[in-house]
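fold-stage: in
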Amino acid sequence: MNAQPARALMTIGDVLGLLSADFPDVTISKIRFLESEGLIEPQRSPAGYRKFCDADVERLRYILTAQRDHYLPLRVIKQHLEARDRGENVPPLESVRRGPAQRPRTLVAADAEAPDPAVRLTRRQLLDGAGIDAETLDRLEEYGLVTRAGRHYDGEALTIARTAAALAEFGVEARNLRALKAAADRQVGLIEQVVAPRLRRRSPGAHEEAAETAREIAALSVRLHTALLATGLRESLDP
C-alpha cells in the first residue's frame, strides 16, 4: 500500500461512520472479520491501531455491496479483489448473475430488527453474515445461544450472532450471555403455561389463536424487560 498522509488516514470508528448510512448492519466486528479473512489490509499505527485510507473504504463498499446486493460469497469476492489488485479486468458487479429474486437478504445482510425464521443459512453464510469467526460461533452454540436444525440455521440465529458480536465490542463474552438465555427460557415457559389451555381446544383456529396470544405476550414481556432494565440502570448510575 502506498504511504498516505497522516491526516488522510482514518480510524475504524471513522470508517464505520462513513459506511453505516449505506450499510446500517455493518459493525466494527464485521470490518475486523473481513480483515482476518484477508479481504482488506489496513495500515497499523506504531501503537498497533488500524488506520484506513480512502482506498480501503472503497474496497469495503465493494465487498459489502457484493454481499448484500449480489449474494456473492466472500471466497468469490476475494478472488475478484485479488484479480483487481493484479490489474486484471473484473466484470462490474451489475453484470454478475444475482441469486434468485426470492432469495432472502438474510443470507448476506439480514435486517437484525426483523429476522425471518424461515431462512435457511449454512454455517459459512452465518459466519459471513454475522461477521464472526468460527471460534465465536462455537462458543455461542456451546452455551445454547445459537442452535441449528440439521445443518442449517434460521434468521433468528443470525440476529443472535450479530448481537453477540456487537456486545463483544464492550467486552461481553458468550459465556456472560448465559444468564440472558436462562431468562429467555423462563419467559418461554411462562408463555407456554398461559397458552396451554388454548392449545387443548379442538375448535377451528385454536392453534392460530394460541400463536397470536404467545406473540402478544412475548412483545409485552420485551417491553417490560426494557423498562425494568432502564429503571435498574437509572437507579445504579444516577448520583
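fold-stage: in (second)
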Amino acid sequence: MRIGELSGRTGVNERLLRYYEEQGLLRPDRLPSGYRVYAESDVQTVGRIRSLLTAGLSTSVIASVLPCVSEDGGFLAPTCPRMRADLTDESRRIGAAIEELETSRRLLEAIINGEPPARAVSTRNSRPGPGSR
C-alpha cells in the first residue's frame, strides 16, 4: 500500500509516517519511481509506535523496543527478556520527570499564593488536600 492509504488506515498523517521512517521505525520498500510501498503489517506497527509514544517513550527508545513487542489480545506485550528491564528503566525516568514537574507546580503555586518557595518544596510529600487553603 502507498503512504496515503497507510495514513488513512492508521489516522497518522503522511509527514509523521515519513518521520517514523527517518527514525528507523518503519522500513517501506521503494518502487523505482521512489514511491514508498508499505506492507499490511505496517498498519499494526504504526499502532504499536503510537501506543509506545503515548506511553512516553522517545522514538530512539521505540526503535530498540519495537522489535521486542507483540500484541497479545489487543495489548502490547514484551517478547525479549531484556526489554522488561529497559521499560522499567524508562518508567523510572518518567517517574523522576513527573516528580520534577510536581515540584515545579508546587513552586509556581507558592508564587501564585505569595508563599515562600522553600515551604512549597519542603511540603513535597505532604501537599494539602482540596479545600485546606
